[in-house]
Amino acid sequence: MTWLRALKETARFGLTLERRRLEPLVALRGAAGLAITVGGALALFGPVVAVSSAFGAFQAAIATYQRSWRPRPVLALASGASLALSTFVGYLAGGSLPLFVLVLAAWTFAAGLAWALGTTVGVIAASNVAIMLVTITLPTSVATAAGHAAVIAVGGAVQALLVLLFPVRRWAAQRDALADALAAEADYARRLRHDPTASFDPQPLMVARSAAVVTPRQARRRPAELHGTRGVAERIRPVLASLADPAVGVPEEGPERDRCRELLAAAGRVLDAAAHAIRYGDPVRIPPDALATLKTPDTLKLLSGPPRRAAIRLAALLDDVVEETRGESDDEGPYRDRPPLARLLPGAVRRVRKELRRDSPVLRHALRVTAVVCAGYLLGAALPLGHGYWAPMTSVMVMRPDFSQTYARSVARFGGTLVGVGVATAVVQTADPGVWLSGALAVLCAFVMYLVMRTGYVAANVAISAYVVFLLGMAGQEAGQTVPERVLLTLLGGLLAMVSYALYPAWETPRLRNRLAEWLKADGRYVAAVFDHYAHPADRDSQDIRTALLDARDARIAWQDALARAVHEPVRSRGLTRAAAEGAEHALAQMGRSAMLLEAHLPEHGAVPVPAARSLATALRQDTERAAKAVRERRTPDWDRVRAALAEWEEVERGHPVLGSGAALLAEALDELTDALSGGRAPKG
């Protein structure tokens, strides 16, 4: 993609509004916390302290909107406390320009590295730097600065208290994650009716798995329908695939296929009903005709062999989903423990330390944002515009570790600033509001921002810009003097951010082959683990398969995320065309699918071992390691050991048709991968 086209695409993306479900009650709660904090500080301490408290409450409410499985009060308290510390440290160094620039550089570099710990931590850390640049200009002494830091922390505490006192949709994030996973499986069941080999994106299941990690206190309090439904949902997907696939399930045409379509449609309706009940906390209402289709005796009479077993298994699993959704299961089962924040510190240090290497996108982002923020602060101080902190504040808020988000947010920031500042300035100059009315208008803008912040960055920036104008007006700063300077400095900050990425990029495109190689290795381990179970059914449990499956899903999601970022980058791919990437992705998805179909029919512990499966598993492990290295080195992979092992499968296919069909699907996937990476055309579908 050329630079011109990349700029057009990122600009369009930054100005796009998304259709998202609005949450007015959550927005009202955040605005109420802001109003309580600002009103109390204004009545007790005056407008300047009220501005500091407003920033603390404002940022704490934003923290509760982040996609995190931590309790919302914890996020609000962490945001308020960290912002209070940032503000106080910044003020202590603010008397000396060289010292403050050093502190700003250290703080910004740490905020850049914080992206290694996840999006939520990265957003909070970047916001702390941005707000610190404003709040350090308000106090006049160390004691006053300590007071301002205290009211900032109080603002976070107020928001945390309101979340506890007025919860909106308890366990909403966990409910949505689990409901999305069930809805994705319902959609998968419907697609299988028309495309028996349809692919399935495992990301909703992985998100639901992350959401299921809880603290011991949460485990005692979480709703019954969130206990075991996800585990049952994980087992439904391979059963759906094995029932529909012509290789191991029903034939492509005939009465068995018609009955299969009826079963898949019924499964989709049951899963949709369970998803709706979990999302909104309503009683689950299963359509009677869907249950009748799943449990009719005619189904078992018509099907035989593996399809019959899959149909029986599907009906039993859907019964379990309904039972778990209704909270009728007495067995809460084990839960995955989420350690407290203090116990996460050593692991967080290790994750940050792993990013301290030259090719790390996170380290490059930290260096880039540090240089831009310091340069922007010095330029803002040198230019005769006043309020020079707007340039570095814009830069730190728009910069992200990847190209597309940085450029899109820069365009959206400037566009939102023009509209928000223009509207707020017109209101101030026309109505001349006093201190209290300015505070009320700032709270109203905050409410709008909380309401629309998930619909697009440009919409949120309109409200943020107006919010800051009203807030500064409440503190006594003349709006007419701040508007033109802020617009110019916002443009400067955005331009600095965009230029910095062009000069010191962290492109994802050159790393696509590494991502593909990691996915290939993970897929190979997953397939080998499944075949090992057939070779040693008495000696192995399915935990090794589960671990390998999760690794394969993580690698697939990492590849998809990298590919999505690379699409918008203005750089050429090195030996991996778009057609080759699509073909390789399809082949690896089919490779994982072959293992998933076999996993749906794993032998019991007392089953007869299949010795040929062991040699195939060993060959797979060896060849995938070599193939991954070949992918990185831009060579075509070969599968000599796997092909030799597959050549010995004639006897196995006669005695175990499911295993033979799975091996045949694996061979097709490997051939497709080889063709894609050697310049073959990408497959359709």
UniProtKB/TrEMBL annotation:
Family: Belongs to the YccS/YhfK family.
Name the record gives this protein: FUSC family protein
Domain of life: Bacteria
InterPro entries in alphabetical order: Memb_transporter_dom
Residue ranges occupied by any Integral membrane bound transporter domain in the UniProt entry: 377-499
Subcellular location per the Swiss-Prot or TrEMBL entry: Cell membrane
Taxonomy of the source species: Bacteria, Bacillati, Actinomycetota, Actinomycetes, Kitasatosporales
Annotated membrane topology: Multi-pass membrane protein
Key words, A-Z: Cell membrane, Membrane, Transmembrane, Transmembrane helix
Membrane-spanning segments: 31-62, 149-168, 366-390, 410-428, 435-452, 458-475, 487-507
Keyword Cell membrane: yes
The species this protein was found in: Streptomyces yaizuensis
